[in-house]
Structures are given as structure tokens and as C-alpha cells.
Specification:
70 residues, mainly alpha
């Protein structure tokens, strides 16, 4: 499915459905969103190690790699 078609399909849904789809597709976005739920009055501070961890976990989930190593 092309990206244009996916965007067109999402446009027909509620903002909540679109948000859920985005959070399901990107672990870093989900991490930032979850932090705002758990610590609502604390600003999320992005750092490189969060991107590195979520990237590796996404690779495991997709099957690109089978296990984490040092």
C-alpha cells in the first residue's frame, strides 16, 4: 500500500484513531506520549539514548534483528 493511500484512509478517521495508528507505528512517538501520561507535569526531554533504544527494539519487533547485543 502506498503512503498516499494510507494517508487518504487515515483522513476518514477520527483524530483519536489517527493518533493511535501513529503511536502504533513509531515506538519513539509512543514513548514520548506514554511519558506525558505517566508524568503529566514533567516535560519530556528527548535524548539520543532514547532514540537508540527504541530503534533497536523496533528492529527486534520487525524481525530485522533477532536479539540485542552489546
Amino acid at each position: 500500500m502506498s503512503n498516499d493511500l494510507e494517508v487518504a484512509e487515515l483522513a476518514n478517521n477520527s483524530p483519536q484513531v489517527v493518533l493511535q495508528a501513529a503511536l502504533a507505528q513509531n515506538l519513539m512517538s509512543f514513548t514520548e506520549f506514554a511519558f506525558s501520561v505517566v508524568r503529566p507535569n514533567v516535560p519530556f526531554r528527548y535524548n539520543w539514548h532514547l532514540e537508540a533504544v527504541t530503534h533497536k527494539l523496533a528492529q527486534v519487533e520487525s524481525g530485522e534483528i533477532r536479539r540485542l547485543r552489546r
